[in-house]
Amino acid sequence: MSSKFDSYQKRRLQSSYISVVISIALVLFMVGVLGLILLKSTKVANHVKEKVAITLFIKDKVTQKQIKTFRESLLEEEFTKKAVYTSKEQAAKKYSKEIGEDFLQFLGENPLKNGIDIYLKADFVTPEKMQELETRFQKNAFVADVSYDKPLINLLTKNIKRVSFWLLVFSGFFALVSMILINSSIRLSIYSKRFNIKTMQMVGATKSFIRKPFIWRSIKLGFFGAFLALTGLAFVIYYVDKYIPSLALLEDYLTLGYLVGGVFLSAFIITWISTFFATQRFLNLQTDELHY
Asked: What is the DSSP string of 55-121?
């Protein structure tokens, strides 16, 4: 009879561990997907920002040598991603192609100016910083005028802030839900050991001594769940990269590193905290409360 009961308890405990691992894996998989979206959303936003250019129209009296020197000095600035020079002749050809006729035949001369398009680094694409740059360049002796799309910059900055805010809110909410789910699973697995916990406590074992093996077991289960979650994420990343190659997920080793580290760190922190408080609860129970 005792052997059957022990076998039943063992199967029950194994079933409890499996449910904990599955719960952790599912939650961490969703955390990983959300983390991937957060990381790539920042890169996508930066990619969009770095497509924005501020154009400097050069005065006619400035020589080609001076323009070349000026462009090289711009490339050394901390805000410059790249600087592209467009001559007035190139600009005229491009404009004629866009409108479908040669406007120079009507005007007799080229009214356009030589220009340098400065593509800024993402951190500098804000209304305030671009206004500072505009003011600075307007004082430059080589520059006749400065142009960029102010409404676009304002709209872009506003939308990125809005999306980032809601992503952070959703991430915080999901992190809280994930902790609650994993905490519930771990508490159920520890519940079956509550009598062992109380027995060890009654023979003089300290709380930290009793708690330690439960914490380490939960961390191991958490890491196993993290491994399963990362396996699922690997398939997701592979197929997303296959059908949306522009995201270059498999080539972004930094993002993948953050993702793997974040999943394992989340597994460690959540399982450690959940097990600590779950064991603490049973350690504080009175003997007559163990049956409830």
From this structure: EEEEPTTS-HHHHHHHHHHHHTSTTEEEEEEE-HHHHHHHHHHHHTS-THHHHSS-----EEEEEEP
